[in-house]
Amino acid sequence: FDLNEEQGEALAKEIGGVFCKVNVTSTEEVEAGFAKARAANGQERILVNCAGVGGGAQKTASLDRTTGKPKEYPLENFERIINVNLIGTFRCITKSTAGMLTLAPQPDGDRGVVLNTASVAAFDGQIGQTAYSASKAGIVGMTLPIARDLAKVGIRVMTIAPGLFDTPMLALLPEAARQSLAESVPFPNRLGRPSEFAALAKHIIENPMLNGETIRLDGAIRMAPK
């Protein structure tokens, strides 16, 4: 699922997958995406939620530097980030797990695995990250309750909270800013690699005792206030 058709189709062709143009804030698009994927590959047993957006760093309330008058955080920005990151994640979980319930359990009782993506910002949110941190903290907070809800039907639910990773979101920053962020990671003293996220995701999927937990994948970083 993604919004960029050109890159999505190219990647799907490269890995032998199916690209579905989906905006996770739309129930209709999510349902259509699952229908298209299932028509090609059958009912999925694995869901990895990675859709997410950041937001401009803005304080909850501040003084305008030009006029000196109070400014409020734009509520529409908060709602947009919550809708994509948190509600979008939950929307995909409900649609995917409903499909998993139609499958017969495997010999160990397992029907499927849900893997969500949070962020260290859920725990160490910086100044200006109110909306982003709230959205990711919501994902962390719902991981255990959903795992408990689905335990009796054999569906596990886990969350990864990445630190500073070399993703398209960080690619938008100037190189000097990227380098500064990389140097703030204790060890390894660099940005995380997507392959390292994938390696942990693969292990979680393959390890049946991992359930209802959030794992920080961050090189021991703890974010400063700003």
Keywords summarizing the entry:
single chain; 226 residues; alpha/beta; two-stranded antiparallel ribbon; 6 strands
How would you characterize this protein structure?
- With 226 residues, this protein is α/β, with parallel strands linked by helices.
- Helix content is 46%, strand content 12%.
- It contains eight helices and six strands.
- A four-stranded parallel β-sheet has the order 1-4-5-6, sandwiched between helices. A two-stranded antiparallel ribbon has the order 2-3.
- A hairpin with a 6-residue loop joins strand 2 and strand 3.
- Helix 3 runs parallel beside helix 5.
- It is globular, with a radius of gyration of 19 Å.
- It starts with a helix and ends in a 9-residue tail after the last strand.
- The relative contact order is 0.12.
List the helices and strands and how they pair.
Blueprint: H1 5-15, H2 27-41, E1 46-48, E2 61-63, E3 70-72, H3 75-100, E4 112-117, H4 121-124, H5 130-151, E5 155-162, H6 168-171, H7 175-183, H8 194-206, E6 214-217
Helix pairs in contact: 2-3, 3-5
How would you summarize what this structure contains?
The chain is of the alpha/beta class and 226 residues long.
β-strand number: 6
In terms of DSSP E residues, the strand content is 5-15%
* Strand order in space, largest sheet: 1-4-5-6
H and E string: HHEEEHEHHEHHHE
Round the mean pLDDT to the nearest integer and report it: 94
Low-confidence stretches: none
- What is the first-to-last residue Cα distance? 33 Å
Mind summarizing the main beta sheet?
A: 4 strands, parallel
